Amino acid sequence: EPEVTQTPSHQVTQMGQEVILRCVPISNHLYFYWYRQILGQKVEFLVSFYNNEISEKSEIFDDQFSVERPDGSNFTLKIRSTKLEDSAMYFCASSVRQSNYGYTFGSGTRLTVV
Amino acid sequence: RKEVEQDPGPFNVPEGATVAFNCTYSNSASQSFFWYRQDCRKEPKLLMSVYSSGNEDGRFTAQLNRASQYISLLIRDSKLSDSATYLCVVNFGNEKLTFGTGTRLTIIP
User: Fold this and answer.
1) Contact assessment for residue B17 and residue B30, using Cβ atoms and an 8 Å cutoff
2) CB pairs < 8 Å spanning A and B
3) Closest Cα of chain B to A6: distance in Å?
């Protein structure tokens, strides 16, 4: 079964550092997403991406965050200057159509900011 | 505000029993509905979509009541492997999925 691949599985970074989380979506999918889940809390939407641009973003997704699809296969989330409160699981997802059909999540990157 | 509410549990249920979860959502214009399953520290996995007419997949039955704005999930003949957190998820007609907090289920041998 095709899957969404995320790397690294765990990243530890110092507060104020930049991190890039990487995702390889399923190859024929056109819609890409990042979600996060702080430990013990609900899964929260960050951003959706279609046709090489952001189609929607949440209030969490401020100027410190950016996304990119640099080479037609990878989909990255960059956090410019990490804060302690950015510590969470970050899940990438992709779908062949818009989200009303549900989508497939990657196994996540656990980001720990110290 | 568009919200999805679930009873967080935990539900501790003996193996073989039937268990049901409910979920309510805030917006009557919501478009699509799902149940996801999440194991501890893993990604959410789509369990089933929920259709207006109700739908069944093996031991799992999902129901949607648009008038009352709730969704249910019934698990029959529960197995140890059903232990997980069950996430109620709604698409409110935009690009994103809105998740409930999840209901934790533990099946006891």
Assistant:
1) no
2) 58
3) 11
